Amino acid sequence: MKQHRLGPTLGSVIEDRGGLCSDPWIRFPITDIVQRAAALKWNWVGHIRRRENGRWSRVILDWQPRTGHRSIGRPPARWRDDIVKAVGKNWMQLTSNRPRWRANEKALVQQWTEIG
């Protein structure tokens, strides 16, 4: 007597568990939160840099504090430092060209997630 079953059997579920636990990103379409944050960061940098002058977000990105003295210890990390580290000192010219910036965004996301 043959049995017909609808759905997976216990044996196929147990065999499938190894693949499910080892690499869930392939099996389920879940976005990695670190890559998503990096993509939003680089997208935002390009967006802000292309905005017209006078906007507060653009002014803050270009702002240089003039305190007159340095605090003790390591200086705090800034977004600009991340950008210069990843792209180089000519990042302002690169962001002004939207197609070139979009083409480099994926590479920047991958590089930023590997660096941390």
Write the layout of secondary structure elements.
Blueprint: H1 10-22, H2 24-27, H3 33-50, H4 56-62, H5 79-86, H6 91-96, H7 98-115
Helix pairs in contact: 3-7
How many strands? 0
Number of helices: 7
Q: Which word captures the global form?
A: globular
Radius of gyration: 23 Å
Structural class: mainly alpha
Q: Unreliable runs, pLDDT <50, ≥5 residues? A: none
- Overall average pLDDT: 74
**Helix and strand run:** HHHHHHH
Q: What portion of the residues fall into strands of 2 or more residues?
A: under 5%
Main β sheet profile:
none
Straight-line distance between termini: 60 Å
Helical content (DSSP H or I, runs of 4+): 55-70%
Organism: Pararge aegeria aegeria
Protein name: Jg14123 protein
Explain briefly what this protein structure is.
The protein is mostly helical and 116 residues long. It has helices at 10-22, 24-27, 33-50, 56-62, 79-86, 91-96, 98-115. The chain has a domain at 33-65 and 77-116.
Structure description:
The protein has a domain at 33-65 and 77-116. The chain has 7 helices and no strands. Helix content is 64%, strand content 0%. With 116 residues, it is mostly helical. 9% of the residues are buried. The chain has helices at 10-22, 24-27, 33-50, 56-62, 79-86, 91-96, 98-115. Helix 3 packs antiparallel against helix 7.
